[in-house]
Amino acid sequence: MKPPRVFISYSHDSAEHKGWVLDFATTLRNRGVDSVLDQWDLKPGDDLPHFMETELARSDFALMICTNRYVEKANAGEGGVGYEKMIMTSSLLQKIDSNKVIPIIRQGSGGQLPTFLGSKLYIDFSKDEDVEYSLDELLRTLLNSPLFESQE
Q1: What is the mean pLDDT of the chain?
Q2: What value, to the nearest 5°, has the Cα angle with vertex 131 and ends 11 and 136?
Q3: The whole model's pTM is what?
């Protein structure tokens, strides 16, 4: 079975946050998910918009790591986050399954999501002590291994 390919979108809030995202992506890779992350897959001189468009289209899922700053940037259309929002809401990806995008709440923002993700169910990674439960929920989704099977 081919591992699911996951594009990770996040804002570069701080060195600490970038480190958390790197650890998160590494954990996903160690647990059978092919994670696409700018910190691994981009180098100086690469075309950032091309990378985002290509990888969002190629990936099975897009994980949007929502911090307060990510939400601000997405809603204002700023930087790479704003560009990804534009890609996700454009006709370019209308053919993509709507379950492809999974919001991840990282800060204790009360479940705050960018407007364009407002109708989506999210997974809460805001409490470090609960990260294993959140990771289990995410991995079950990505690996199509639900906790309960429907009895239809």
Answers
A1: 81
A2: 105
A3: 0.81
